[in-house]
Amino acid sequence: MPRHKMISDEQVLDDLFDTIVRTGPDGLTFALAAEACGLSPSTLVQRYRSRVDLVEAVLLRAWDRLQIETETADAQEELNPKGAISLLMRLMPPGEADRDAADGLLLLREDIRNPNLRARGAAWGQSLADALGRRLSGDRDEGQRLGRQMAAIWQGAHTWWAFNRNGTAEQAIRRMLEEWLASIRLSPG
After folding, report:
1. Is 19 exposed, middle or buried (0-12, 13-18, 19+ CB in 10 A)?
2. Angle, to 10 degrees, between the axis of helix 9-23 and the axis of helix 41-48?
3. Structure pTM?
């Protein structure tokens, strides 16, 4: 008689995300994953076939969660430049900026190497650019261009903050976004 799943795939993948952030994709083993999620290594092998497939599943789940967070912020934030900044700041939880800037680079490397993860990241990037663009211009093409630029400024500001540590991440990134908006003659308020 087959056993019922006691722990859902979603719960397993969510539980393993912090582990993969800490160890990097190359450090995630079935034994370590079993400790983190409470399932046996053999159960994990049955569910995910290989370590590479497990890593991909964890990171695809993380992209899905980020997509949901982005859609929620998109539905709730004002349709103006201030709303664009607020949307981006919501995607950067307080206290995780340091972790994301350092440990997140290993995940980004994996996302770029793996074609499935790269495609998922590109799809999220497009939806983020759309969400930002609607707040920056009434013209769709112009909004797309500005949305992509703003996302790039956001990511770059996060990287430079990680090197310089001038104030909190939120202060530094918000300031850079506001300066960029002013440089293209859009008022954040």
Report:
1. middle
2. 110
3. 0.87
